[in-house]
Amino acid sequence: MLYFARWKIIAILLVVLAGFVAVLPNFFSKETVDRWPSWMPHAQLTLGLDLQGGAYLLYEVDKTDYIEKRLRTLLSDVRKAMLEAPRIGYTGLAIQGNGVQLRIRDAEQYSLAQTRLEALLNPLSTNLLGGAGVNEFDLTVGADGLMRLQYSDAGLEQRVRGIVSQSIEVIGRRIDELGTSEPSIQRQGSDRILVEAPGLDDPERLKDIVGQTAQLTFHLVESQFSGAETQPPQPGTIVVPSAENPNISYVLQDSPLLTGEDLSDAQTAFDQRTNEPVVNFRLSGSGAQKFGQVTTENVGRLFAIVLDDEVISAPQIREPIIGGSGQISGSFTVQSANDLAILLRAG
What we know:
Blueprint: H1 6-23, H2 30-34, H3 49-52, E1 54-60, H4 63-83, E2 90-96, E3 99-104, H5 110-118, E4 123-124, E5 134-135, E6 137-141, E7 146-151, H6 153-178, E8 184-188, E9 192-198, H7 203-211, E10 216-226, E11 237-241, E12 248-253, E13 258-259, E14 263-270, E15 277-283, H8 285-297, E16 303-307, E17 310-313, E18 325-328, H9 334-346
Helix pairs in contact: 6-9
């Protein structure tokens, strides 16, 4: 007959009891566990998608859309480079295929134009130990003054890899803002991202939060017009529709004065006058300085806040704003204002 010392029996029972107490929260809902006293365990196991369900999303970089937007920026940069003193005369500045081209009028300015365009090749770091960087663009120069900046294969590949890496970080921050525990975000191939969020109660909201771009930019307004009018954009300007009134469009300066990268924080609040949901934002040190300078030099003008290619607000600059903070208002619900704040905080 086996005999166990009393202290061994007590030790075994205590271990079993401790194990039972530790796993006890897994037999109850999270809401029930949250109501337990603080001295009781609250940690619950995070089950995978196969056991508790959740959201499974696969994203792919839209190279065509990215190239189109990047080339528009490059076109503006080339125009500015040619207008620097001494100015360089050119014709035919346009986007052609995967590049931007123009023709220099004066042969004596070929060398100067080439030097300025070479400054726009944009070297990219490969982040590989000992690896040489690559240029985002290649420059070709013709004998007749035709010059062309075109995406290099290595440059585009490196850009896409960088976009995927940055997107993984952004998606992670956005999911963290939703309070989802232990999400899985990983690269699939060179241009895809796999997102798994076990236990998420609202997969559609995750899809909306992750899928929205939240590209926030700030532009000075040149003019505005109704939908019945036709007003093609002039060089250096863009036409952007109003988010609240589709019949109204704004002519804005092409180059943004500030972007979402200049934001340091964004929080949901309620307007003290209308009691409507708004988003209060605060700019970083450099962003606040630029914002203060722009508002000081342009008192009386309209200042458009553009979100995902729509003007969501175009307030008048009544006085210099040097505090580095502002407010985005519009036809927000509490949910949409909160989602916008999440997107802006997460990038």
